[in-house]
Design brief:
9 helices, alpha/beta, binds adenosine monophosphate, 7-stranded mixed β-sheet, binds manganese (II) ion
Length: 277
């Protein structure tokens, strides 16, 4: 069975529509796919219909990737197996959508000061859903020739040290975990080794995440060394967290694809061990 429990669609900053994503997942032989868009669940219904209409041999796992703030780090918490109708969840996601919009206006104003005009409208053209992401600004900056590639767009303008960085107003990790639990889901710490933290900090993060009731952490990711996989598996055991795996797929490219992750080692308990799907 192939599980990919982290992926994005045009509902946030992915480039495939939910319909295109599930078709691609079926072609790739994925059996269980979670759509985990940034701060929105609006792509899931279309994906579910596409699976039913085309009779795709694929089970969808409901999901979301919630942006949180922890000691000035932007930490992503994935929620899996969530009830999409849950009131508290939808309320939190609406707040984040609103915060994203206000942040986008502020980013645009900062960009205007360094002679990048009409960035909000520009970014909006790439945002096909209601979520505006820095990834959309990055595409605009590249297309308009302000920078050579996405990486440079973040480095020069959008990352913490960039000209147009605006501190986001995300919720806390506790709020994200609580809302995921209220919606009957499991809370997963996303891509633990991508936060650019020392080992000490990461241990502190995992200690708090576990104390707050966090259920799992991503252990197997795309573009990962075996050392990293082994280290994350050890941490999952140390903090008694279930293990998840996902590609964090945003769009088609040669080195990252749906399902392209190393299988979880036997030492960890997969998050799906007691799922009935
Ligand atoms: P946001 O959630 O709006 O703050 O945007 C963050 C998104 O931008 C992430 O989910 C990534 O998809 C993308 N991103 C962040 N940093 C980089 C980077 N250095 N290079 C490329 N993409 C990035
Ligand atoms: Mn993204
Ligand atoms: Mn993320
Ligand atoms: Mn992601």
């Amino acid at each position: 069975m192939i599980y990919d429990l982290h992926s994005h669609t045009t509902a946030s900053d992915g480039v495939l529509t939910p319909t295109a994503l599930v078709n691609h997942a079926a072609e790739r032989g994925i059996n269980y796919l979670a759509i985990t868009d940034h701060d929105t669940i609006k792509g899931v219904a279309e994906a579910e219909s596409a699976i039913q209409n085309s009779n795709l041999p694929l089970k969808l796992v409901t999901g979301v990737e919630i942006s949180t703030l922890w000691n000035s780090y932007e930490i992503h918490i994935v929620g899996l197996q969530i009830d999409l109708e849950n009131f508290d969840l939808n309320k939190l996601l609406l707040q984040h959508e609103d915060n994203r919009l206000n942040r986008a206006y502020a980013i645009s104003e900062k960009l205007a000061r360094v002679s990048v005009a009409d960035a909000y409208q520009g970014a909006k053209q790439y945002a096909q859903g209601d979520i505006v992401s820095r990834a959309h600004f990055a595409r605009f900056l590249v297309e308009q020739g302000y920078v050579k590639d996405i990486k440079r767009a973040f480095k020069k303008y959008l990352a913490k040290s960039g000209y147009a960085y605006v501190a986001p107003k995300w919720c806390t990790i506790a709020e994200a975990i609580n809302v995921i639990h209220a919606a009957g889901g499991q809370a997963v710490l996303a891509h633990p080794s991508r936060y650019d933290m020392t080992a000490t900090k990461l241990n502190l993060l995992l200690t708090e995440f576990k104390e707050l009731g966090g259920d799992a952490m991503e252990v197997s990711q795309s573009r990962q060394t075996m050392d990293d996989l082994r280290n994350l598996a050890k941490l999952a055991t140390k903090y008694q967290l279930l293990a998840s795996q996902g590609s964090d797929f945003h769009g088609l490219n040669s080195y990252l694809d749906l399902g392209k992750t190393t299988p979880l080692p036997d030492s960890v308990q997969p998050i799906w061990h007691n799922w009935t799907l």
